[in-house]
Amino acid sequence: MNNLWKYIIMATAVVLASIVLATAYTQRYRSMTGTITVTGLGETEFMSDMIVIEGSIENENYDAAEGYRGLEEARNRVINFLVSKGVAREAITFNMPYTYELTTSIYEDGNYVGSRFTGYNLTQSFTIESTDVDAVESAARELPSLLAQGIDISVQNPMYYYSKLESVKHNLIAAAAADAHERATQIAINSGAELGNLSMSRAGVFQITAATGDEEFSAGGSFNLSSREKKARVTVRAEYKIKPAVK
Q1: CA distance 109 to 180
Q2: Looking at the 3D structure of the chain, how many domains does it have?
Q3: pLDDT tens by residue, 90-142
Q4: For position 60, which CATH number holds?
Q5: Do 185 and 241 contact (CB within 8 A), yes or no?
Q6: Are strands 222-223 and 207-210 parallel, antiparallel or unpaired?
Q7: CB neighbour list of residue 143: distance below 8 Å, 6 or more residues apart
Q8: What pLDDT is stored for residue 62 in this prediction?
Q9: What is the model's pLDDT at position 23?
């Protein structure tokens, strides 16, 4: 009987020891689990394939009808000039003209007493939009030369776009996510752990800047229009679970 109790006590001790060891291992495993948070980067350069240039012409005349005829002549000369420089006619769009009266103030003995009508100003804006970037760029540089021919014209700086920007964005997100995974993997390996499943991933805002220079990023995202050669970048913040490495 005494031997039986001895065996029972020994068996119980073994079971208790096993429970203690299992609990200790479980606690150790749990202490080694957690997450890794990393930020991946996707970046690429590309060349704009579309150009947009805006401008306007003006004509002043005491007679509105004469002013409009002058504006129409100026418009035709601008179109002919651009076409002669290789710009497609369908790339040039003129908007509706805008007319407003011109007046001058009248003073008597230093006091304002009213205004006098002096004529009309007629303004018409236009837009050049084309994928033939080189031709439009070259022609736009010469547009101000029409001033010497008596045409009151103003031209704004060109704006550059890329027709496949959405594709670029998708590829950048994929590249940034892959970079984040690689970073997390290296951190886990160097820490003696094993990378687990992705628990969270979030893309940042897109920054599209000039390909060269030190243009600043914006918290809300940048979208450069003034440079033909651009650089796009985006970050992806990812959180991965980690677990002890299997030995």
Answers
A1: 77
A2: 3
A3: 999 999 999 999 999 999 888 888 899 999 999 999 999 999 999 999 999 99
A4: 3.30.70.2970
A5: no
A6: parallel
A7: 55, 78, 81, 82, 153, 155
A8: 94
A9: 39
